[in-house]
Amino acid sequence: MPESLITNTYSAMAEAEPDLSTFENKSGLAEDMKFLASMPELCDVTFLVGDTREPVCAVKAVLAARSRVFHKMLYQAPSPQRKKEAPPRENKLRLFLKRSSEPLLNLQSASQQRGFTQQLAPIQEPTSQQHQTLIIEEFEPDVFRQLIEYIHTGCVTLQPRTLLGVMNAADYYGLDELRRACAGFVQCCINVDTVCALLASAERYIQYKCTKSLVQKVLEFVDEHGNEVLNLGSFTLLPQHVVRLILARDELQADEFTKFQAALMWGKKFCDNNPNTPLKEVIGNFLEYIQFHKIPANVLMREVHPLGLVPYHIIMTALAYQADPASVDPGKLSPNRVRRHQQGRSMSVQSSLDPYGSNTTLSSSGSSELVSSDGKHSTSN
């Protein structure tokens, strides 16, 4: 601690209580507690985290003091309820003989038990003193390790890659101050460089309620910076249903040719990883979200049509509209947009990968809500 800070602390205490002095070294305590959690031989609980079962060690007493959820998990495990069995009926003579023989039996076995007392003592340790091993499947190793570090030290470095996981873990284990800190950091970390990573991480934690607020903010940012986001190389790393979700949004501020280029870029990356899938088939999943009649005719004929990925009738319909708008049925121009308005803009893009089997979807409605298969807008755990 800086000497000036120590002096100020002493002087402040001297003014308040002349006979008292308080010295604080919180940074030193945090470092010591971090060291404690890093030494397996000093810990009494090991968590095997994620699909890879990576070990994360901790001290049970610290976890229980900082989180009521951990306290219940480690010290208040429910024991199975057993019905009391009625004692067997015995006649009076047998009961009398049994009670009469107990002092004699106790006297004979006393010397034998005395010799084994010291050997049995180490085995009869309380459950709370034994090392526990628990499996944590809800969160990734990096996320859970940051959570344990915060619980032991009161400090943690937040970063966009693990932000959503740490926020949901803090909510799950009842660490409200950490959850609020993550929520405040969201406003600072959402930018062009991190937006795709945040959307990708939402896939794993889609069933948690904190994901809803973050995804709303991320999608609002995507809407405002549409052309920049669609041109990012990291855009190709998003799941297909998230790409469809973005392209389908009415609020997305991006021109239609940029949307087509983004779909093409994503499709090529997908085909690189799945060489047996034709590019035309992949691109076909996004065509309904692109309004080709808003792409200039010269661009359509020079950049889009020669690729052979867009059906000929779509190109001709777009050109016909540009020549004479009244000659084309609006429903043929933007079938997805018409369908969404007919359904009250409640269309949702189904998640292609839900690791928890909850059939949860990312909604592309104007409110950008998370919708689950049972109609609820968020799932609390």
Structural notes for this entry:
By secondary structure, this protein is mostly helical. The chain is built from 18 helices and six strands.
Secondary structure topology:
Layout: H1 3-16, H2 26-38, E1 45-49, E2 54-58, H3 60-66, H4 68-75, H5 92-120, E3 132-136, H6 141-153, H7 160-172, H8 176-189, H9 195-202, H10 209-224, H11 226-230, H12 240-248, H13 256-273, H14 279-283, H15 297-304, H16 312-323, H17 330-333, H18 335-342, E4 348-350, E5 361-363, E6 370-371
Parallel strand pairs: 1-3
Antiparallel strand pairs: 1-2, 4-5, 5-6
Question: Notable features of this structure?
Answer:
381 residues; mainly alpha
**Main beta sheet: strand number and arrangement?**
3 strands, mixed
User: What's the β-strand tally?
Assistant: 6
Average pLDDT: 77
Indicate the low-confidence ranges by residue numbers: 79-86, 116-128, 341-381
N-end to C-end Cα span: 41 Å
Number of helices: 18
With strands numbered from the N-terminus, the spatial order across the biggest sheet is 2-1-3
Shape: elongated
Helix/strand structural class: mainly alpha
Helix content: 40-55%
Radius of gyration: 32 Å
Series of secondary-structure elements, N-terminal to C-terminal: HHEEHHHEHHHHHHHHHHHHHEEE
Characterize the quaternary organization of these chains: single chain
Strand proportion, as a percent range, falls in 5-15%
